[in-house]
Amino acid sequence: SQTIHQWPATLVQPVGSPLSLECTVEGTSNPNLYWYRQAAGRGLQLLFYSVGIGQISSEVPQNLSASRPQDRQFILSSKKLLLSDSGFYLCAWSSLRTDIQYFGAGTRLSVL
Amino acid sequence: AQSVTQLGSHVSVSEGALVLLRCNYSSSVPPYLFWYVQYPNQGLQLLLKYTTGATLVKGINGFEAEFKKSETSFHLTKPSAHMSDAAEYFCAVVGGGADGLTFGKGTHLIIQP
Q1: Longest dimension (CA), chain A
Q2: Is the pLDDT of residue A63 over 70?
Q3: Phi, psi angles (nearest 5°) of residue A60
Q4: What does the pLDDT look like over A4-16, one tens digit per residue?
Q5: Mean pLDDT of all residues in chain A?
Q6: B102: which chain A residues are within 8 Å (Cβ-Cβ)?
Q7: Do B90 and A106 touch (CB under 8 A)?
Q8: What pLDDT is stored for residue B52 in this prediction?
Q9: Contact call for A99 and B94, based on CB within 8 A
């Protein structure tokens, strides 16, 4: 069966520090991969999606970037965190055969 | 562009009472619609989905939703609320790139004993 892993579960970082969140999927190949952010009072927002290795599309301009170095690995990064980057970050995957997205457990990021 | 509106950021019902969570969508194409549930500090779990076919969709945990094209609605219901239903519920429509989801802002369901 397919599983999706995200880490770390929680993270507290100072303003201006770098960020790296990792997401990996097991049990499937060539998935579509997504990063969402859930900020207080703002609901869930799609940040990035990827349909293949090295293929990244951004839905909104921001202080973050994403990379997909391997088929089932999706990384969210920042060179310098802002206070507004705080939130709950969710990774998700879907396959071409289904329209369902499956979510990881999320990373709670607090920028202080 | 697609959009989703969930009426009521908080809904409170008594245990055993009917649960009704409202969702209206906007889409320029026939929509694919989803309801997800999120328990505290956890990811999202799919409750049910509508793509094509039967407009009344049954999901997990006794939930169901009815797609009404004329009303552009996809309301979520459950006949009898249980304490374990307390969670955040999100309605979503396919609308982003590579079929990324556009979510509503969520409805926090509170179950009173």
Answers
A1: 42
A2: yes
A3: -140, 145
A4: 999 999 999 999 9
A5: 92
A6: 46
A7: no
A8: 84
A9: yes
Q: Which residues of B touch A (CB under 8 A)?
A: 32, 34, 36, 41-46, 49, 51, 90, 92, 94, 96-106
Q: What is the pLDDT of residues B18-75, one digit of tens each?
A: 999 999 999 877 889 999 999 987 889 999 999 888 899 999 999 999 999 999 999 9
CA angle, A105 as apex, A100 and A109 as ends, to 5°?
A: 125
Enumerate the β-bridge partners of residue A89: A37, A107
The number of residues making up chain A comes to: 112
> pLDDT tier at A97 (50, 70, 90 boundaries)?
low
The verdict on a CB contact (< 8 Å) between A43 and B36 is: no
Query: How many Cα atoms within 13 Å fall on the side-chain side of residue A1?
Result: 2
Q: 3-class secondary structure for chain B?
A: CCEEEEECCEEEEECCCCEEEEEEEECCCCCCEEEEEECCCCCEEEEEEECCCCCEEECHHHCEEEEEHHHCEEEEEECCCCHHHCEEEEEEEECCHHHCEEECCCEEEEEEC
